[in-house]
Amino acid sequence: MILCLKTINRDEHLAFVRTRASVSHMQVPSWGDVKADWRSESLGWFDEGGRLVGVGLVLLRPLPKLKRYLAYLPEGPVIDWSAPDLERWLEPMLAYLKGRGAFSVRMGPPVVARRWSAATVKAAIADAQARRLREVEATAHEPRAFDIADRLRRMGWQQTEAGGEDVFAVGQPRYVFQVPFAGRPLQDIRRSLNQQWRRNIKKADKAGVKVVQGGYDDLPAFYEIYVETAERDRFTPRPLAYFQRMWTALTAEDPDRMRLYLARHQNEVLAAATMLTVGEHVWYSYGASTSRNREAQPNNAIQWRMMSDAHSLGAGVYDLRGITDTLEESNHLLGLLRFKVGTGGEAIEYLGEWNYPLSKTLHKALGFYLSRR
């Protein structure tokens, strides 16, 4: 099969996304509007009959004073990753991006490699000998993922560990936690929550915590406790303008693409979170909570409301995004992992992000720069 790659417009891109059950929120046209420091283009793969068979949102980051770019396809492109002729998909992309002045290409194949059940992860956390999730025997393996990884290496792609150990590292997380929804009634999903989760949801209700949907004007309230969360959990917060731009761009594309939820108690916002939806895939994107009145359990309440709404929207999966790979008690992110495990879902390992150096000199310089950040 001969594939032709060319740029496509937003409508073509979005129409293709609507034909898929699951596409990353970072591979829709509006995500390019969110990333103001990058230029964005929609790429389309066409078969011999002129039919659009794959898409990709590529972000182009210029090097200072040079007309050269880092090309990045976060959690993409959206192509047939199981195709035996994977080279025919990726080689035209590399040729096109090289012609655009890219010195390096980074992509994140949306391919699952391994899965760990909640029970397996819980046991690993309790095991003093377990250091990393990657070293724990998986509940399920996806054989095709390892074949794809081998083919990428033979093509010259290099795997990066960015986003692997630290959920807040540069790049997208390699390890995430998801709750499968497809074919399950909501009461079954609630029964799968651990006892502490179910108890905390009842506590929040009894305490009078009310979870409501917010809008653009509520983003400052979210941001106030998001900054507090960043200081507590030791990550650098994004500016308020980022979330305002995110809301404007995503909701203009689809009114349900982004939602904001607020957990209120006695006229005070105790927790807030954003939820993103593309097709049957729903993400818990950003979360925030104050240290005040934690006994009211607003975090469990807000998550259960989001899960319930996601189920009503027809979600096939509820994605709680990144988790740490480190299982040691000294890891400050272990509490977040425990919280997510309580949903009864599963830990997922993706293939991670891959780089292709089109200019080895500039690519090496970029690696040095990122290592010094």
Q: What CATH architecture of the largest domain do you see?
A: 3-Layer(aba) Sandwich
Relative helix content: 25-40%
Strand content is 25-35%
| Major beta sheet summary | 9 strands, mixed
CA-atom Rg in angstroms = 21 Å
User: What is the string of helix and strand elements?
Assistant: EHHEEEHEEHEHEEHHEHHEEEHEHEEH
Judged by helices, strands and strand pairing, the structural class is alpha+beta
Walk across the major sheet and give the strand order: 7-6-15-9-14-13-12-11-10
Shape from CA axes?
globular
Q: What are the segments in which pLDDT stays under 50 over at least 5 consecutive residues?
A: 162-169
Question: What do these coordinates show?
Answer:
- It is a single chain.
- By secondary structure, this protein is an alpha+beta fold.
- It has 2 domains: 4-109 and 354-372, Aminopeptidase; 113-142 and 175-350, 3-Layer(aba) Sandwich (Aminopeptidase).
- 36% of the residues lie in helices and 27% in strands.
- The strands form 2 sheets. Strands 7-6-15-9-14-13-12-11-10 form a 9-stranded mixed β-sheet, with helices on both faces.
- The N and C termini lie far apart (43 Å).
Attribute tags:
nine-stranded mixed sheet, 373 residues, Aminopeptidase, 12 helices, single chain, alpha+beta, 27% strand, 16 strands, seven-stranded mixed sheet, 2 domains
